[in-house]
Amino acid sequence: MSAVLNSTDGTKGCVEREDAATSGCHDEFDDNFEPGLFLCRDYVCYEFSFDQYGVKQRLMSLPSKQTDYDLTGQIIWPASHTMCYMILANSHLFNSRRVLELGAGAGLPGLLATRFAKEVVLTDGQEEIIPLLNLNATTYAYTEQRTERGSSTGSPSRSTSSAAPRPPCAVHVLPLQWGYKTAVKAVRPLQPKSFDVVMGSDIVFWPEAIRPLLETIEYFLSANGVAIISYINRCDLVHRQFFDMLADFGFIAEHVCMSTFLPEHFPVSPHAYLLKITRRVGVSPRPKIGKKGSLKQNRSIDGIASYANRQISNSGRHRMGLE
C-alpha cells in the first residue's frame, strides 16, 4: 500500500508501508494502527456547472487518480452527475421533503438537493470519509431562503413579496453501515425515521452489499416515498441479483429515460441505469433490519456473489459500508 505525502516544499513523494505480517511487527501493534495516517487528504475545490438550470455547486474532493484504493468516496463517481441532473429536472420530488443519501462520499447529489429539500441526511459507511462529508456539508450546502417551486427549472427561487420564504435546508452528516441495527440507531434521533426520498449513486457495486442496501432502503423509505438509484452496471450477475432482490423486498423499479433531462452531449455509458423505486401496493413490509446475520443468502445468491467477487475490485467494499 502506498501513501502520498506532502513535503514542506510542496512536492509530493510516495512512501511504501510494509505489511505487518512480513515486517515482524507484534500483533498488539494492530490495535493501535491509525488508518488516517495513510490517507491522502489533498482535497481540491471543484465547481460543477449545470448551465441549463443556472446552477453551480462546489465541493471538496480528490482527483480520481489520487483516491485510496478502498476509499472510493473521496472522488466523484460518474453516476453522481446523472443523479444531479435528475434532481434538477425533478425538483418537485425534493421540494420540502426529507432526503437520505446512502454512500454519499463527497456528497455532490445531496448538496444539490439542499436547494429544495426540507432536510438532507448525508451518510457513508466509511468513517474516514465523514470528515470530508462534514466539510462539504458545512461549507457548500445551500443556505439561502427558498420559496416553493415546481419542476420546470432547477434553481430555487429567491423570496418574493407574494410567497413566504422557506427556511434553509437542515443538513446532517452521519456514518451509516448498511443492514446493521446498531448503525441504524445512529439515525434514529433524527425523527421521524422515514424519508420521502432515499437516493444513492454508484452503490450497486458489490454483491455482498445488495441485501443490506435493500434492507436499509426498506427501513427508511416512507410508505409513499421513492428511492432513486443511479449506477453503472459493472457486473451483469450483480445487476441481476439487484433486480431479483428488489422483487423479494416488494419493490417496483421504474427505468428513468435519461435523455429527457441530460444535456445533449452529456457522455452516457451504455451500462448506465437510473431507477425510481417504490413499494408495491398491498405487499407487507419485510422484517426490519437485523444484526450481521441479516447478510444470509441462499445458495444461488452465494454462487452469484462468489463468481462476482472474482470480477470486481475490493475497492467497493468500504464504500458500501461492509467490513
TrEMBL record:
It comes from Vitrella brassicaformis (strain CCMP3155). This is Calmodulin-lysine N-methyltransferase. Coiled coil: none annotated. The lineage of its organism: Eukaryota, Sar, Alveolata, Colpodellida, Vitrellaceae. Residues 144-166 are annotated as: Disordered. SUPFAM superfamilies: S-adenosyl-L-methionine-dependent methyltransferases. PANTHER family: HEPATOCELLULAR CARCINOMA-ASSOCIATED ANTIGEN, PROTEIN-LYSINE METHYLTRANSFERASE C42C1.13. It holds the Pfam family Methyltransf_16. Residues 150-164 have a biased composition (Low complexity).
